[in-house]
Amino acid sequence: MSIDLRAPAAGAPASPPPAGAPASPVVAPARGRSLLRGWLPPLAVLALVLAGWYAVAYLVLEPRLQFLLPPPHAVLTDGFFEPQVLERMGEAVARTVQVAATGLAIAIVLGTAWAVAMSQARWVERSLFPYAVVLQTIPILALVPLIGFWFGFGFTSRVIVCVLISLFPIVANTLFGLQSVDRSHHDLFTLHGVGRWTRLVKLQLPAALPAVFAGLRIAAGLSVIGAIVGDLFFKQGEPGIGILIDNYRARLQSPELFASIIAASLIGVVVFLLFGWLGRRVVGAWYDESRRGA
Amino acid sequence: MSVTSAPSSRAATSAAPPPPPSGPAPAAAPCLRFRGLAKTFPDGTTALQGVDLDVAPGDFVTVVGPSGCGKSTLLRIASGLERPSAGEAQVSAEQIGYVFQDATLLPWRTVARNVELLAELHHRPRAETRRAAAEAIELVGLAGHEQKLPGALSGGMRMRASLARSLVLEPQLFLFDEPFGALDEITRERLGDELLRLHAAKGFGALFITHSVTEAVYLSTRVLVMSGRPGRIVTAVDVPFGADRDPELRFTPEFAALCGRVSAALREGHS
Q1: Is A199 found in the same domain as A150?
Q2: A180 CB near a chain B CB, below 8 Å?
Q3: Which domain holds residue A47?
Q4: Given an 8 Å threshold on Cβ–Cβ distance, is B101 in contact with A184?
Q5: How far apart are CA B123 and CA B114, in angstroms?
Q6: Distances in Å between the alpha carbon of A101 and those of A114, A140, A180, A224, A256?
Q7: Helix, strand or coil for residue A66?
Q8: Rounded CA gap, A255 and A257, in Å?
Q9: What local confidence, expressed as pLDDT, does residue B230 receive?
Q10: What pTM was estimated for this model as a whole?
Q11: CB-based contact B81:A191 (threshold 8 Å)
């Protein structure tokens, strides 16, 4: 008895290829086509945006006001292709990434511990969950001056901002994941007399991973925002991309300003993709299959 | 021809060669024994009332009854997941196998690792666990699928894996909570045949819960019919067929007559 549950290729062609030998040669070009179909619409939108950008820069703005919106090629030539600017941006991005990554790492450790503690007993959850919600509801920005007041304007304060801003999604998602275990799975473990630790390690944590990674993806993006916010507020110490953006704004160096904004956005995009990829690597295989199987 | 059988244990399994561990029929000490069992939940619903039940090694006892009559509660009490409100529940089995309604495999573990799980939880030596798991996988007909994830298996194969997982611990008592309920009929009958084969080979005591009258009669040495809530056992029907049952058995008049009796008892208990 064999069962054929071959995964349909991503974006399967409209007419399924006949089972057997000819399957792969048929699928290959179809996959290329669907890839094109996937990339074409966003690229078309990008072209439209660039066209609009040029139109505003050359047709709407008078030349003396063009600094408000430099044309895209100027952003490239004066920003990304200018070695000095590029070097400064590189350093700033590296510092921002360092702050965000440190903050995220601390938030992961704290958030997971917090969620695990809450998953172990109702009374712990009742005592601690309100504070997780409070953490989410207080505007972190309002706390930033206080953090600077207490911890100075350096690395530590920036990291604290990142931790505060990225903690909630980790706590909430991890707790949700830990509690998502089926009752029958719990029964199975209860029947065999396992302790809390074994249940946590062999059942709850693995079951929580999909939710954990969903939370991580959000938290990682928030941590980058936290690092930039810290930069903008503290304005001192080692400059990250936030300070660079602020400096270029103050000096009206608009191509450089746009280039650093794009660099900051790229950090966010890369972090998002990285954690998406990591999540698929860690849980993708079983999560997708169990979804399909269900 | 109505032979209303009292809850005397095992009447007519002697026709076939009895499974190894059981001696002369009446002498075998039950591995599960309920006397006057009752269960009332904190919200006041009475799930079970005055249930007497014995499962001896080699017995295959099936409980049929309408939905919500407390059949599952019976198993939860037998396994120790739930305590009875009154009466006594004695279990004299070192290991209990519990097969749930769904396969309850861990989706992140391969079939092999799932089958090893319980032995792992009992801290059995690694090498022994591996060997026992491989044997169990072979026994349930999943050889060749060891490295697959549960999500890539059909419902029937998942149930086989679930069965193998319990077999690794060599339980003396097996509890089945409508294990084939979600499967199509062909898979269901096939798994039923293989379960019979396993039962004959291993000689464990089995308490099996189902909705299906034919499944109950086909698998069992004794069928117990439960009434609607609160669940009581209204009729016990001994099944005289031997251990080597054939799918064709389902089409014999004797089989139909037994099914008729069980169905009639079900209807009576339900109204």
Answers
A1: yes
A2: no
A3: 23-60
A4: yes
A5: 15
A6: 19, 18, 28, 8, 25
A7: helix
A8: 5
A9: 82
A10: 0.78
A11: yes
